[in-house]
Specification:
The complex is a heterodimer of chains A (902) and B (109).
Chain A (H helix, E strand, L loop, with lengths): L1 H14 L1 H25 L4 H12 L2 H10 L4 H19 L1 H30 L10 E7 L10 E2 H9 L5 E16 L4 E9 L3 H5 L3 E4 L15 E4 L1 H8 L9 E4 L2 E9 L14 E4 L3 H4 L14 E9 L5 H18 L8 H8 L2 E6 L6 H38 L1 H9 L4 H38 L14 H27 L3 H6 L5 H37 L10 E6 L9 H13 L4 E7 L13 E2 L13 E5 L3 H5 L3 E4 L13 E5 H8 L8 E4 L6 E7 L14 E5 L13 E7 L3 H15 L5 E6 H8 L1 H35 L1 H9 L4 H29 L1 H5 L10 H27 L3 H6 L2
Parallel strand pairs in A: 4-9, 6-8, 15-20, 17-19
Antiparallel strand pairs in A: 1-10, 1-11, 2-10, 3-4, 3-7, 3-10, 5-8, 6-9, 7-8, 12-21, 12-22, 13-21, 14-18, 16-19, 17-20, 18-19
Chain B lengths: L8 H14 L2 E2 H11 L8 H13 L3 E7 L5 E7 L1 H27 L1
Antiparallel strand pairs in B: 1-3, 2-3
Chain lengths: 902, 109
């Protein structure tokens, strides 16, 4: 009962504020009136009675205030008032507000954007049932000490059919990006994943539409052409049309029936790449011609990734141990056993299985981005810190400027706590506004980040979508920053002494400036770290760009064709026709083809037979390419000796090969390579070397020099079934992309069911290859500049404030004979030490971060003295700008006017 | 001038509650009544009376309503609530114990 009454009272006080206030005034007025009547009746005049009553009643304002205090809603009321006052104040000084809000928004927004990436790449678990029990199976051996994730189909089936393993089940999957889908009239490339029938069931992922695979869908190899679309692809390609169910689409010219659409948000087990559709592993050989032994039945054909679901409470080690007998059995059953070399036997004996948690999927995306993301995280944290320091600068400067106001408020009885609360409310408001703008910055910056970092946007799952975690992070950071850095000025000004504040003298500010100078050191240090990072990343990028790839990259287009349903003997004819069609297009200078797509992270190792040469154990052999005629002249790879392949090197002509310098050096030493005979591993040395080329970059920019050899496509014969998908290289005389469409049409004239994969200029391909480095360089320049700007502004602010405060002192000095330069020096000397300390600290921090940065650099050490010097110089230059103007102001102080001012 | 400092806060609360126990009254009336009953010894200053009234009201021991008054216009009348009566009993009890204890000490010292 009493509680109800109390609450009602408080609510009334809070929400019927003016009414309650009115009652108070009326009550007091009545009381005063009665007092007056009393005094008058004792014989006083009207006027004296009123005065006497007023005196007797005492200070109305104070009594009223005490009554208000006893209402107990004072605190809330004050917050409302503080907020209103703070907003008025912020609106009144738009310059300050804009600077503070923008600094904070930039700092917070950058951090939120990176947080969104960290969350998706590093923190998020797969959106499946109980992801913590999902594990990846890998193997290592003395030959391949890094875990390898590919296994044969028979081994996968062994695992699935074994009883008594501590697993609830095993699934297999593998992605194949170059499948041509024919849904309407034009073939289009789709990214396809081959999965086991139990894939969806074991992961606990449900269908959005229709059904998903079951184990019965893979009972007969090659005879159950069904396909499940990913939600992403269903929306993107089919506009989320439900009638796609039971439709027939052609994949590599084979009819498939769409049986379902998988769950929204489920992007597969590699979060970096969401496949467009899935078919069963049993259909893989129908769709794709695997080089080498039979894809489904041969134990030597290892191409499938295996994931398992652990039974509860089983450790990874136990699980790995339990699988070893199956691996040994696999080695025994391998039909290639009879032909095993001694080394191969040793490799197999050293093979071990590993079970690692895969709650986050394959971890490939994480592996690609993790270091870069941490580096970026450090950068944005530094920017945030700088922004905070800047805000503290601003608030301190303002607190000093408001000393007068606080003096008055303290004088009329405000408590220190009350003043601090007012200032904190102001920071809080700043935090909320800055955080909101920061959210916008986060979205903008997040988009830029993703476009800088991700090359295949269509299949990437990285987004900046607002979720609870992101919003919570954003505002937590904004409020922590604004309150954390609003507190120091708040505490400082609450210490403000009454008298000097009112008199307008600023004797107490010397101490206050100390804090600001220390902040200058911090700012200089942080900016230096960021600028040094920017320098390192730029130079690293330049090193990468400066690499001689060994071929001419300008105006060069590469496009991969995949004529999967051609009989091997028809392939040479097909490619010759394509080359002829494309060669006759306007704007095309030269056309050739080869198996190796340049600088796209793909490589194809081959065995080698060189009579009289035994490779050392563990040697991985050279790489081989099968190419068309005029390959080297079209790509601009210089020949050092001999000749290149021509149209005369046909199937019936003597077999010829071309090797690169590294190959010749490794296998022939100082002998003349021309005329030497070599052959593919396991075959005869039936190819005669007719040419030697300069070394080039083949797989990627950073690779070490690779041994490479080439054979003419025309001379492969029956072997060519392994080399259906070849890449066409087109050298153009105008902008290459403008020729893309006519190339597509030209290929269509040969066969309209052939899809063109990855039409891209080689320059764009190289851009993709150095994408991370470019992103880091771009972002670090941006953040470095922001940092330097903030530091310069901080320096400028502190110095010009100090000039304003010490005007009288400087005036006196000049009056008694100091030269202007000396006056300026008085001011500069003040901060020089702090700038130096900051610079030294920055260098120390940069050096201590070298182990993190080293992995991201190419061809430059993280402690590169030139770069560090450059950063120091840059900071020096910006510092000078921040110092010069205030120093000039100091030098120009007019003694007379400075002294008169007081 | 009001001798408000002479009145300990708890005592003022007790006096106000006791005054209101008989009938509801406005602020001026409460001040006058305490003055009269104490033979002009206790003069309650407005500076202490009104904050005390607001405090007692916030605690739910007295309630207030605007009514026509003997002063020729409407005034805010305070009256004791049920909880206020209980509180009065508690405060009276402790006052009696305190004052008799003080009296004992003065007698025997």
């Amino acid at each position: 009962m009493r509680l109800v009454r109390v609450i009602r009272q408080r609510l009334r006080s809070l929400f019927r504020h003016s009414h309650v206030e009115n009652e108070l005034q009326r009550e007091f007025a009545l009381h005063l009136e009665q007092l007056t009547i009393e005094y008058r009746s004792s014989g006083m005049s009207e006027r004296d009675a009123i005065d006497a009553a007023r005196r007797a009643f005492g200070a109305v304002a104070i009594t009223a205030e005490q009554c208000r205090d006893s209402r107990r809603v004072r605190f809330l009321e004050d917050i409302g008032k503080d907020l209103a006052y703070a907003s008025r104040l912020l609106a009144k000084s738009p310059g300050f507000t804009a600077t503070a809000v923008l600094s904070l928004a930039l700092g917070v927004g950058a951090n939120t954007a990176i947080f969104a990436l960290v969350k998706q790449v590093i923190l998020d678990l797969l959106p499946i049932r109980d992801p913590n029990r999902i594990v990846a199976i890998t193997r290592t051996s003395i030959q391949l000490p890094e875990p390898v994730a590919s296994f044969s189909n028979p081994f996968l089936r062994d695992l699935q059919s074994s009883a008594n393993l501590p697993f609830d089940g095993f699934l297999g999957f593998d992605r194949w990006d170059q499948i041509a889908m024919l849904a309407e009239s034009v073939a289009e490339p789709v990214s396809t994943e081959f999965v086991t029938g139990n894939y969806f069931e074991l992961l606990g992922v449900h269908a959005t539409l229709g059904r998903q695979f079951t184990t019965t869908d893979e009972q007969t190899a090659g005879a159950q052409p069904v396909v499940v679309l990913s939600h992403n692809f269903w929306q993107r390609r089919f506009g989320a049309d439900p009638s796609v169910l039971n439709r027939t689409i052609h994949l590599n010219n084979h009819p498939f029936t769409v049986i379902g659409v998988s769950a929204r948000g489920f992007d597969g087990l590699d979060p970096g790449h969401s496949p467009d559709l899935r078919v069963t592993i049993s259909m893989a050989p129908t769709l794709v011609q695997f080089p080498g032994p039979a894809a489904l039945s041969n134990r030597g054909s290892r191409w499938i990734r295996i994931f398992g679901r652990l039974k509860p409470g089983v450790s990874a080690n136990q699980a790995a141990q339990s699988l070893m007998p199956l691996l040994l059995q696999d080695h025994d059953l391998d039909p290639g056993r009879a032909r095993r070399t001694e080394y191969r036997a040793k490799v197999l004996a050293s093979e071990r299985l590993h079970v690692t948690t895969a709650a986050q999927g394959t971890g490939e995306q994480r592996h690609t981005y993790e270091t870069a993301i941490w580096a970026l995280g450090l950068m944005v944290a530094a920017v945030l810190l700088l922004a905070c320091v800047n805000i503290a600068h601003l608030l301190l400067a303002r607190a000093s400027a408001r000393a007068h106001e606080f003096g008055i408020r303290l004088a009329i009885g405000a408590s220190r706590f009350r003043l601090v609360r007012q200032l904190l409310t102001e920071s809080l408001l700043l935090g909320v506004v800055g955080g909101s703008v920061g959210l916008l910055v986060a979205f903008g910056l997040g988009r830029i980040l993703i476009s800088l970092v991700v090359s295949d946007r269509g299949h990437s799952t990285l987004t900046v979508a607002p979720d609870t975690a992101m919003l919570a992070f954003n505002f937590a950071v904004a409020l922590a920053a604004s309150i954390g850095f609003g507190l120091a000025p708040a505490l400082q000004s609450s210490r403000s002494e009454l008298a000097p504040g009112l008199k307008g003298a600023h004797s107490s500010h010397v101490r206050r400036l100390m804090g600001r100078k220390i902040m200058i050191s911090v700012q200089v240090a942080i900016s230096l770290v960021l600028l040094a990072g920017a320098g390192l990343f730029i130079r690293s990028l330049n090193n990468l760009r400066g690499i001689d790839v060994g071929f001419r990259t300008d105006m060069l287009l590469q496009v991969t064709l995949s004529p999967t349903n051609y009989a091997p003997e028809r392939l040479p004819d097909f490619y010759n026709q394509v080359v002829q069609q494309v060669r006759s297009l306007p704007g095309v200078q030269a056309v050739t083809f080869g198996r190796q797509r340049l600088i796209s992270n793909a490589a194809w190792k081959s065995g080698i037979v060189v009579p009289g040469f035994t490779p050392p154990d563990g040697d991985n052999g050279p790489s081989r390419d099968v190419i068309g005629s005029n390959y080297f002249s079209a790509l601009g790879i210089p020949l050092i000796a001999g000749r290149e392949f021509t149209d005369a090197d046909t199937a019936s002509a003597p077999k010829v090969a071309i090797v690169n310098q590294a190959f010749a050096q490794f296998y022939f030493g100082n002998q003349n390579p021309l005329g030497m005979r070599i052959g593919p591993g396991g075959g005869n040395a039936e190819y005669t070397v007719v040419g030697v080329t300069k070394n080039a970059k083949y797989r990627e920019m950073r690779e070490a020099t690779t041994r490479f050899w080439y054979v003419p496509f025309a001379q492969l014969g029956g072997d060519s079934s392994s080399f259906r998908a070849l890449t066409l290289f087109v050298r153009t005389s105008s902008e290459p992309i403008s020729v893309a469409n006519s190339i597509r049409a030209a290929v269509g004239r040969v066969d309209k069911t052939i899809a063109l994969f990855n039409i891209k200029t080689v320059e764009a391909q190289i851009g993709d290859n150095v994408r991370l480095e470019r992103a880091l360089a771009t972002l670090s320049i941006f953040f470095g500049m922001v940092a330097a700007l903030l530091a310069g502004a901080g320096l400028f602010g502190v110095l010009s404030y100090s000039v304003a405060q010490r005007k009288r002192e400087i005036g006196i000095r000049i009056a008694v004979g100091a030269r202007p330069a000396q006056a300026a020096w008085t001011i500069v000397r003040d901060v020089a030490l702090f700038v130096f300390v900051g610079a030294a600290g920055g260098i120390a921090v940069t050096l201590s971060l070298s182990s993190l940065i080293r992995r991201l650099l190419f061809g430059i050490q993280p402690n590169d003295p030139l770069t560090l010097m450059g950063a120091v110089l840059a900071i020096g230059a910006i510092g000078m700008l921040g110092v010069l103007i205030p120093a000039f102001q100091a030098a120009k102080v007019e003694p007379a006017s400075a002294l008169r001012n007081d | 001038m009001a001798k408000s400092s002479d009145l300990i806060q708890g005592t003022l609360d007790l006096l106000v509650l006791k005054t209101l126990a008989r009938e509801s009254m406005h602020g001026w009336g409460i001040a006058k009544r305490i003055q009269q009953l104490s033979d002009d010894v206790l003069s309650v200053g407005q500076g202490s009376l009104y904050p005390a009234l607001y405090r007692l009201e916030q605690q739910g021991w007295i309630s207030a309503e605007w009514r026509d008054s003997d002063l020729g216009r409407s005034a805010k009348f305070y009256s004791l609530t049920r909880e206020g009566k209980k509180q009065l009993a508690i405060e009276l009890n402790s006052w009696t114990r305190l004052s008799s204890a003080v009296a004992l000490v003065i007698q025997r010292a």
